[in-house]
Amino acid sequence: MKNDIKVVIEELLCYAGRNLDMYEEDYILRRNNLLDLFKVDSPADAPSTGCRPLQEILDDAVNYAVENKLCEDYERINFETRIMGLVMPMPFQVITTFEQLAAVNPSLATKYLYNLSVNSNYIRKVDIDKNIGWKVSNPRGDIMITINLSKPEKDPKAILAAKKAPQTSYPKCMLCKECVGFSGNANRPARQTLRTIPIILNGEQWHFQFSPYVYFDNHCIALSDEHRPMKIDGDTFKRMFDFIELFPDYFIGSNADLPIVGGSILSHDHYQGGSKVLPEMNAPAKTYFSHSSFPDVKACVVDWYNSVIRLEGAKRKDVEELAEHILKCWREYSDKSVGISAKTRNEPHNTVTPIARFNDENRYVIDMILRNNRTDKEHPDGIFHPTQDLHNIKKEGIGIIEAMGLFILPGRLAAEAHLIRDILTGKSPLDFKALSDESNPLCKHMGMIAQLANDFGTGLSDSEAEERVTDYINKACERILDCTAVFKHDEEGERAFGRFMTYCGF
Description:
Blueprint: H1 5-19, H2 27-37, H3 54-67, H4 76-85, H5 91-104, H6 106-119, H7 125-128, E1 132-136, E2 143-148, H8 156-164, E3 197-201, E4 204-210, E5 220-224, H9 234-246, E6 251-253, E7 270-274, H10 279-282, E8 285-289, E9 298-302, E10 308-313, H11 316-331, E11 343-344, E12 347-348, E13 350-358, E14 364-372, H12 400-403, E15 406-410, H13 412-424, H14 432-435, H15 446-456, H16 462-484, H17 491-503
Parallel strand pairs: 2-15
Antiparallel strand pairs: 1-2, 3-4, 4-5, 5-7, 6-7, 6-13, 8-9, 9-10, 10-14, 11-12, 13-14
Helix pairs in contact: 1-2, 1-3, 3-4, 5-6, 9-11, 13-16
């Protein structure tokens, strides 16, 4: 313990006053709450007039808590959040400030909430900055790749605690409004620093918040007030346009509403957005179409890896109605020649991943990524899903973020890539018997290693090995997106896409 806990408490209060909009009238209450948390009977002799960087303060505070058996070492992050929850402004204060700023300029309001999320460590920027990211240039469209190092592997003690912990259904999921102020447990992260803003979308109560993981600039979430399953229908487009009218600088999109092609949480209706222009949004038109019932809407097939229809128009209602029409057509559409079946008995397979935004001309835009989740014996994970030889890079379903060209790859890949580079440089032996052992972290990469060693040998320099491994990952991500295309980029696929557009009345 570097500093007296009483001094650390005063530093926390000083930090909160400077960075968390803490009122002068709140200091006594906040101080007493912190004294209670740390089981200290009296404060320091004088308030702090300065403070160190937040993480240094928190490290000292949590070290004290661990040393004095107030929390276990594996509970550090949850205890940090508990500390910060005691100096956070209350929801009413945050909502009031947000709405006052939004009345002047929506971007001021979103900037305020984002900065509050960072300053409170709800967005753990010190961890997020550890992520490794790069851009891949390709004639078909650039893609972005991030190896996510901000979510460390769980401590074995934490895993054991989670197994032993009683199961609870509160909150029902990590997107429920009840997560605001939630203390967390062995299975759920603490959310005492979460603040959400009530918004109305299509006449319904929704909530606006930032994602704690911030996979791109101002990564935000709009979540339904009601815990209900994801659903893509005409109301989806209305809500999305309501959202961008509230926050014109942001885009908003939705994961698909079916397993395999949907996101990780299908149990709670929600959208994701942000201010970052993701690669798919920059993809140009490939072929233009016109619809006689919607002459003022510009429609095109987008020149992108997966199958995308883009609608653009000055009249919101026209774009909404045409989007709903295309969705209804796609829900019922089958083309056995390219493996598309709308249903198996009563199980639906066709849906879309929609993205809405304003373009530079302030016209309404919706991109509709066509998705199909059908499986068969040859493709148990999905016909339009990454093939098994790509699962070492990405096995999970391809949701909206990846579909738009931003790949979030697991943190383990950084260490595994380093081990593969050691084989390619000869620092480690190429031993296929050892690699075939399922306990070997490189077992899943055997095919990748064999291909790289065969193509380039095992006598590469460090820089050459790094280049070859990175290039392999880049090409794998491009292929993954290609796999999700319901209409492939060949003559047969393009003809099939044309048939669907004709089916829609174009």
